[in-house]
Amino acid sequence: MMMDTTTTARTTEAEAAAPPRAFKVKVKHWRTLASWSWNAGDDVCGICRNPFDGCSPEAKYPGDDSPVVWGTCRHAFHLQCITQWLSSQTEQRCPICRQNWEFKSAMETDE
Amino acid sequence: MDLSRVQKEIREISQDKASGISVRVLGEDLTRLEGTLKGPKDTVYEGGIFVVDIEIKGVYPFEPPKMRFKSKIWHPNVSSQNGAICLDILKDQWSPALTIKTALLSLQALLCSPEPNDPQDAVVAKQYLNDMPLFEQTARHWTRTYASETASQKNLKQLLEMGFSEEDASTALDNAGGDLNTALAALLG
């Protein structure tokens, strides 16, 4: 009981002694956080039907492990999905529009 | 097999009540499905519910699902004997962008517009080209006999009344493409 009373008294004393002043903060270090997503029109891959921001059934993690690629016909798929399709076919065609499939280069994709 | 894609597809079909198609899973895994489609309006198949056997192989969706009519059907592009289907997208025109649902819808479209020049059943195709009235009469008769819901219910009821178990009776009817006498013969062994 004695202890409690003393503590309370001290706090009150301190508040009275310190007049209100501007609150100053010094930032010592910070961390940044960014998010990104594939800019691929449709949000799911036309082959595996998983989101582009997710990954193909073959991959473990989204992102670099499961990249998204475009054809010159502008249709996008997970790299693993379209590769598996093309390797099973003699004629290389887009699964969606059936035009001849050619990979669009990264520079062209950057719109 | 891409299980998550097949699961997603089944869910989507069950949510869509408007298209006249349905699908259910047979057995433990997702390799064997059974689809149904309604005979299109204003065709000789109107009023029929056609059952389609679907087999999903391990390489799906990089190879098409195997489909076969379980209900007997009189159509130039379907075998009247075993239900085998001649449809390009189920063969060399398959694309992994297609689905079980689009394939069933394509079958429905095939019922609307037969291709007698690329037949699966030469006898039916010949009749289609040479004697349209007889073709239509036969196709309507087969629809009523083998593919109408009431017909299959009636057949099942009859077998149950004879004392066969529901499981045995419906399996026998399935195997017989809905034909009562064939099913009965099989049950009597």
UniProtKB/TrEMBL annotation, chain A:
<keyword id="KW-0479">Metal-binding</keyword>
<keyword id="KW-0131">Cell cycle</keyword>
<dbReference type="Pfam" id="PF12861">
    <property type="entry name" value="zf-ANAPC11"/>
</dbReference>
<dbReference type="GO" id="GO:0097602">
    <property type="term" value="F:cullin family protein binding"/>
</dbReference>
<dbReference type="InterPro" id="IPR013083">
    <property type="entry name" value="Znf_RING/FYVE/PHD"/>
</dbReference>
<dbReference type="InterPro" id="IPR001841">
    <property type="entry name" value="Znf_RING"/>
</dbReference>
<protein>
    <recommendedName>
        <fullName>Anaphase-promoting complex subunit 11</fullName>
    </recommendedName>
</protein>
<dbReference type="InterPro" id="IPR051031">
    <property type="entry name" value="RING-box_E3_Ubiquitin_Ligase"/>
</dbReference>
<keyword id="KW-0833">Ubl conjugation pathway</keyword>
<dbReference type="GO" id="GO:0008270">
    <property type="term" value="F:zinc ion binding"/>
</dbReference>
<dbReference type="GO" id="GO:0051301">
    <property type="term" value="P:cell division"/>
</dbReference>
<dbReference type="GO" id="GO:0061630">
    <property type="term" value="F:ubiquitin protein ligase activity"/>
</dbReference>
<keyword id="KW-0132">Cell division</keyword>
<dbReference type="InterPro" id="IPR024991">
    <property type="entry name" value="RING-H2_APC11"/>
</dbReference>
<keyword id="KW-0863">Zinc-finger</keyword>
<dbReference type="GO" id="GO:0031145">
    <property type="term" value="P:anaphase-promoting complex-dependent catabolic process"/>
</dbReference>
<dbReference type="GO" id="GO:0005680">
    <property type="term" value="C:anaphase-promoting complex"/>
</dbReference>
<feature type="domain" description="RING-type">
    <location>
        <begin position="45"/>
        <end position="98"/>
    </location>
</feature>
<keyword id="KW-0498">Mitosis</keyword>
<keyword id="KW-0862">Zinc</keyword>
UniProtKB/TrEMBL annotation, chain B:
<feature type="domain" description="UBC core">
    <location>
        <begin position="1"/>
        <end position="148"/>
    </location>
</feature>
<dbReference type="InterPro" id="IPR016135">
    <property type="entry name" value="UBQ-conjugating_enzyme/RWD"/>
</dbReference>
<dbReference type="InterPro" id="IPR000608">
    <property type="entry name" value="UBC"/>
</dbReference>
<keyword id="KW-0547">Nucleotide-binding</keyword>
<dbReference type="Pfam" id="PF00179">
    <property type="entry name" value="UQ_con"/>
</dbReference>
<dbReference type="Pfam" id="PF00627">
    <property type="entry name" value="UBA"/>
</dbReference>
<keyword id="KW-0808">Transferase</keyword>
<dbReference type="GO" id="GO:0005524">
    <property type="term" value="F:ATP binding"/>
</dbReference>
<feature type="domain" description="UBA">
    <location>
        <begin position="150"/>
        <end position="189"/>
    </location>
</feature>
<keyword id="KW-0833">Ubl conjugation pathway</keyword>
<dbReference type="InterPro" id="IPR009060">
    <property type="entry name" value="UBA-like_sf"/>
</dbReference>
<feature type="active site" description="Glycyl thioester intermediate">
    <location>
        <position position="86"/>
    </location>
</feature>
<dbReference type="InterPro" id="IPR023313">
    <property type="entry name" value="UBQ-conjugating_AS"/>
</dbReference>
<dbReference type="GO" id="GO:0061631">
    <property type="term" value="F:ubiquitin conjugating enzyme activity"/>
</dbReference>
<comment type="similarity">
    <text>Belongs to the ubiquitin-conjugating enzyme family.</text>
</comment>
<keyword id="KW-0067">ATP-binding</keyword>
<dbReference type="InterPro" id="IPR015940">
    <property type="entry name" value="UBA"/>
</dbReference>
<protein>
    <recommendedName>
        <fullName>E2 ubiquitin-conjugating enzyme</fullName>
        <ecNumber>2.3.2.23</ecNumber>
    </recommendedName>
</protein>
